[in-house]
Every structure is written in structure tokens, then in C-alpha cells.
Write a structure and sequence with these properties.
Elements: E1 8-15, E2 24-30, E3 34-39, E4 47-51, E5 55-60, E6 68-74, E7 79-84, H1 87-100, H2 120-127, H3 132-139, E8 146-149, E9 165-168, H4 173-181, E10 190-195, E11 200-204, H5 217-228, E12 236-240, H6 244-251, E13 266-270, H7 276-290, H8 297-307, H9 309-328, E14 333-337, H10 344-356, H11 363-375, H12 381-384, H13 398-412, H14 421-433, H15 444-450, H16 452-455, H17 460-465, H18 497-500, H19 513-539, E15 555-558, E16 565-568, H20 571-575, E17 581-582, E18 588-595, E19 604-612, E20 623-630, E21 635-642
Parallel strand pairs: 11-14, 12-13, 12-14
Antiparallel strand pairs: 1-2, 1-7, 2-3, 3-4, 5-6, 6-7, 8-9, 10-11, 15-16, 16-17, 18-19, 19-20, 20-21
Helix pairs in contact: 4-5, 7-8, 9-10, 9-13, 10-11, 10-13, 13-14
Membrane topology: Peripheral membrane protein
Binding site for substrate: 275-276, 338-344
Active site: 338
Amino acid sequence: MEYIITPKVEQVKLLDRFTSKKPAVGTLYLTATHLIYVESSPEIRNETWILHHHISAIEKLPLTSTGYPLLIHCKNFRVAHFIICRERDCHDVYSSLLRLSQPVVFEELYAFSYNPKQTEMSRGMGWKIIDIEDDFHRMGVPNEYWEQTDVNENYEICNTYSTFLCVPKEASKPVIVGSSKFRSRGRFPVLSYFFKENNAAICRCSQPLSGFSARCMEDEQMLQAISKANPGSPFMYVVDTRPKLNAMANRAAGKGYENEDNYSNIRFQFIGIENIHVMRNSLQKLLEVCELKAPSMSEFLTGLENSGWLRHIKAVMDAGVFLAKAVSEEKASVLVHCSDGWDRTGQVCSLAALLLDSYYRTIKGFMVLIEKEWISMGHKFSQRCGHLEADPKEISPVFTQFIECTWHLMEQFPCAFEFNEKYLLEIHDHVFSCQFGNFIGNCQKERHELKLQEKTYSLWPFLLAKQYPYQNPLYKPSAVNIVLKPNTAPFNFKFWCGMYNRFDKGMQPRQSVVDCLHASMKQKTDFEETVADLNQKLTHQDKSHSDSTFILPMKLSIEEDSTHLQVIGAPQDYLEEEQMMFTNGAEEVIETVSAGSKDVDNVTDSSFKCQSTLNNIDSLELVKLNIHVDEDNHQISQDTIEK
């Protein structure tokens, strides 16, 4: 709070570039963690909350006739344009946000003060929900080819790897240590994914320190051990995700790529994903297009093309598809690296796993994938996401690209993922929010030193506790146990409005398909519960009425599209060969009314009534059927039908 100069500013306008209406007027508050804007509307209380850690840039624009503009750009792609009446207030807000949005040390991050009022035991259990070792057991590791190694138990061999690593059984400790000395940052080859259907594996590492002619016997033995761990294939791929020109340039610095003459039974492949600096500039150009106030079609499409963003997304996707195809179809193991093995390598390995394994396409499985391929393998989240005030050249949207690639897969395979777009956006938001400890730091060793599991909370249990909004209503678990084979032709890649213009209400579709499907599914569930409850009441009806009342059995049948609800066993099913259909996805209320004497010699009348209660229905029919039951002759007749 010591950095907040003015905690409250009144008569602040919030502009919306997509509406011609008068801008909202309200009060701007600054707290220790958020900027909060509350509209001064007597009808409805609209609030805009912006986390300080989400702010990427703040601009003071030239004075206008209405006041002093303050433009706030956020890492989750929100753009807030405020107009503040007084220059002094504008400067105070600007200065406060500049400091609050750029913490200097980790302890200033939101996660260290966030308190959801849980016990220490709950906090500890939350960190144990996702277990990488369990995931390797699920894959069938350890086995006769692969084993867990404790060679990096105290981060001695590689300080950016985790302590849990799997390597080929044939690789001895001297071989592992020797290989680590020949790899950039000591990141020697380790197992990423084991495809137990054919024993093919995906491994990851960093570039070799080969220069123009250097070689390392231990590193060659390490690759040979990986190849032997897949006896069904006579070769293995070594995939360099960099453009070949970049890899060749690294040779001059004593690094580079593997010489096929020195490594037996390998096939070398360049992919061509650009480096972090190219990606950062590409995203900046994309955001400039997104922030155009009223672009023409030509301006938008030209700007999108010039940004090169979708070309980069396609390159990452192509690499993931190559790995998945090599493993599943060619039955070959693959070793993947880029320069240091924590950016492009993570993108490619995690995408390949998504394609190969349906478990990672579930809500919890996706958490495991992120934990395994990104967090534990040393992706530098704090540097790439700009958590602290540091070198801006280290910031790059590497993880954002992975999230977008996942979204493109969901667009091509809408029934293959348990989660929806909201789930991806929620995770993406929390990577930058620093509200939870999962993404703080640049490697596991750093997180261990910060004691994050003791001082912060894990994101995963919070997401698992409220899964419903993130569920994909089209998900079919029985049909997803296949390897996904996406089409990476250019026309399959499109601009993700839900990510980059999410907060621009004027650009969003008037109806959300997912929201409509969720509403339909809820109506279906409510209807099932209503019918089940009524059936139970009918079953337990007082036996004294059984001699005078004829109870018609009812059951519920709901068609696949969830828009037609059908009652089977209603009176009309006994009288005529017709169905009573309820359209418009309406909730149905079924009432059965019995009347008549308890005397068995008398005729009992039963009225069966079905009524829809959905609001705003264009046409609504109310059907009432009067049924006469002649118990002496065991006959049922229909007296009247009223509509």
C-alpha cells in the first residue's frame, strides 16, 4: 500500500472503442493487488477489476478536451482507456501503477499475500494433487527399457531440470554425466513421453556443444541407449526445432547440432520455429492490429498477415504433428531440442503428447501435461512472462502459443477435449496473475528455494473444485482414445478472437455456442431429476389409492441433440401411436392428478397434464388429456383432448 499515492479518484471515464454511447463515468480505486473501476450507475453496479500483475504497459496520452487519458495494456490482452479529470490525479495513478505492476523481488508477488483461508494441511494437499511420477506410471514407466534416475537429486547435474527424471536403463551414471557436460546448460536427454503401444519414446534435451567438429563419446552412447530402448525401430529421429540457418550460426559459438556421421542410426530433421525475439515482435504486431479502432477488412487482413503470427502457430503445430506421426505410425523414437531446450522444445513435446494421448485432453490431464513439460522441465515462466522488473528482451509468448495451438486442435476436434475455451483462458490468465505459486520462478530449484509450497497455494485444486464452467458439453470419452491427426493446411488456422479481443464486448458473438450447450445440458439434467422425483412419488403412493386409481408408468427419453424431450408411457401412448414432443429445449413439468371414488365399482378419471415453463417461448401448447378407466372391463378410453 505504500506505493499508492491516491487510492481513490472520482469522475473517471472509461471509454469503449466499439460503441457510440457516452462513456461510462465512475470511481477508480487502487488497492494493494487490483485496480478497480466502479461505474456510477443507479441501475446496475458494473465493476472492472484489473490485477496489477496483469498490466504490461501504461501510457499517458496527450491532453484532450474531456481530460487526461490513461491507457493500460494488459498481458491477458485487455486494453483499458481511462479519462481522468485532473492532471495531478492522472499522474498519481500512473506513478502508482508503474510501481505496483513491476515488482522487484518475488516476495512482492500476489501469491505471497493471497490467503483463501485454507488450513496448512489443505495447502499441502493441494500441491500433491498433480504428481508427475504417477503419470509416468500410467505410461508404463519404469519398465524393461526405462527407469527413474536420482542422478539429479540435488540439482547437481542440471539446475534447470527437476529431480524426477527418467532415462534409458542402458545409460549408466558416467554416460549421463558425460552427456550433460556436452549439452547446453547441462540439459542431457531425458524421457518426455513413452508410447507403450509400440515402445517408441519422445525425449528432450538442449543443443550439443559440438561446434564444427567436437564430439562426445558419452553423448553418442546416450543416444544409442535411447535407440536401443525401442527395439522395434532400426533408427531414431533427432529433431532440431530451430531454422537451420540459426542452428548453423550457433556452431560458430561452439554449439550447434548433431553430426550424423558421429551418431549411428539417427535421422536428423530441422523444423524451423523462430526464436523468442521473433515471436515477441510478431505478437506485438498482432496486438496493434487488434487495437485498431475501426479497421477495414483490408487493413485487418493485411495487418494479420504482416504480423506472421499464424505462420508461427502453424510451424509449432507442424512440429507436434511430425513427432506424433513418427511415434505412432513410423514407430520411431524421437529426440527433440532447440537451443536450451526450455522454449520450443516444450511447445513441441507437449503438443505431440496431446495428439498421442487422450488423457492429456482431460481437465486434470492437461494440468499434468503443463506440470510435466513446462514447470518441471524449466520453462522460464517468470522471465518469459515478465513477472518481475527485468530485461524486456527475455519476455516472449512461448506458452501463449502452446495454449493457442491447443485451441486450434479443439476447433478441429470438438468432441476430443473434456475442457473448453474458458479453461484455456483461465490457465493463461493465471500464468500472468501470480495469484498462485505454480508459475512463479524459472525452474524447480528456484521454486524450492522460494519455498512456494509452504508460502503460496497451487492453482490446480482451485480449478478442479469448479470444473463445470470449463467442461466441454460435446466431449465424448468413449470416442477419444485415438491419435489425433490434425490438418495443418493454412486455411485451418484462424484468428482467435476469444483470446485477443476477449474484453472488447462489441466484437464478441451475440451468443456463445458453449454457453447455449451448457444451458441445454442443464435443462436436460433438471428434467431428468424432475421425472425421477415424480416417478418415485408415484411408486410410493399410498396403497389405499391403488384400488381406485390406475397409475400409468412413465419414463424419460431424451434425444441426443438435447432439444427434444419425450415422455414415454403417457396416456397417449396407450391410446394412439403418436408421440408427444416438447421443442425449444424447454423445461417440462409433469403433473398427474387423480380423482374419483375409492369404490372399485366406480370409474376413476385421471388427468395427465404436461406443461412447459420456459420463458420467452414463441409458441407454447398446453395439452390436457382426460382418461377414463373402466376397471371392470379393463379398458381405457380417451374422453377429450383440450389444447
